Amino acid sequence: MELIDVSGYVAEEKMAIAKQYLIPQGLKSTGLKNEQIEIADESLSTLIKSYCRESGVRNLQKHVEKMLRKVALKLVKGESEKVIITSDKLYDFVGNPIFTKNRMYEEPIPGVVMGLAWTAMGGALMYIETEWTKNPATITDKDKAVGNIILTGRLGDTMQESAKTAYTVARKYLSELDPQNVSLLTGNLHLHVPEGATPKDGPSAGCTIVTALLSLALNIPIRNNVAMTGEISLKGKVMPVGGIKEKTIAAKRENVTCLILPEENRKDFNELPKFITDGLEVHFASYYKDIFKIVFENK
């Protein structure tokens, strides 16, 4: 048996499906007429982004039907002749939103970089945080060459290997960039991926980890509103990854303006519809040095 991977619907496609199929079907099943209810586009958009991020539309259908049943009840009770559902009234019909804002940091700080991940619910932002557990400035001569790294955040085997590779790449890159800066060689590091209860795996955070380590070592934050994805090789080559469509959608949903993707994923990005890619500044990297120039420009 051959398995065929099919990408999920994007928000615009879900909106069209809801308007053309789900809402008319729900009106028919509840006995409502078009003139008795009005669902604003803004409320549908909020419903899709904050309640129904899964790949398909089954959950969206359940939420639409739930809203229409409550509207029908209001009309039967004589509470209203017409119900208008706006985004600020969604809570009354479907409760609290399941998904809230994904951004942990509004402004970049040294040692923290925003990556992109693929999950069962589609794309998502994934932060890489780094901090010194032993500050290089406090290390004496007898402590030299004891630098190491601690990994936390329920990382799978592949992601742990990717982090160790990124650590080596970052050390090498820093020694070439600034030979006097030996912080990654002597300092003890802690690397954490937030949402510790969620298992994480895969190699696609390699470039993000290298950038976080260099940002910490240089004590310089990266450019604002930048997110990246890409596997890193031991020699600094940026390798292709999967889920480009879902990751791009996640970045745009969170108002990320600059994306860095592997050069070999250019063809995948070029296949995306224009309404997904509009407004995004996209860079394609072959080696890590290409990423460094973008994220630390003018710094």
UniProtKB/TrEMBL annotation:
Q: Which residues form the Lon proteolytic domain?
A: 107-298
**A biological process term (GO) from this entry:** mitochondrion organization
Which keywords does the record carry?
A: ATP-binding, Hydrolase, Nucleotide-binding, Protease, Ribonucleoprotein, Ribosomal protein, Serine protease
Q: Which family is this protein grouped under? A: Belongs to the peptidase S16 family.
User: What GO molecular function annotations does the UniProt record carry, in alphabetical order?
Assistant: ATP binding; ATP-dependent peptidase activity; serine-type endopeptidase activity; single-stranded DNA binding
One GO cellular component assignment for this chain's record is:
mitochondrial matrix
Q: Which residues form the active site?
A: S204, K247
Q: What is this protein called?
A: Peptidase S16, active site,P-loop containing nucleoside triphosphate hydrolase,Ribosomal protein S5
Q: Give the originating organism.
A: Cinara cedri
Asked whether the keyword Nucleotide-binding is assigned, the reply is yes
The lineage's top-level taxon is: Eukaryota
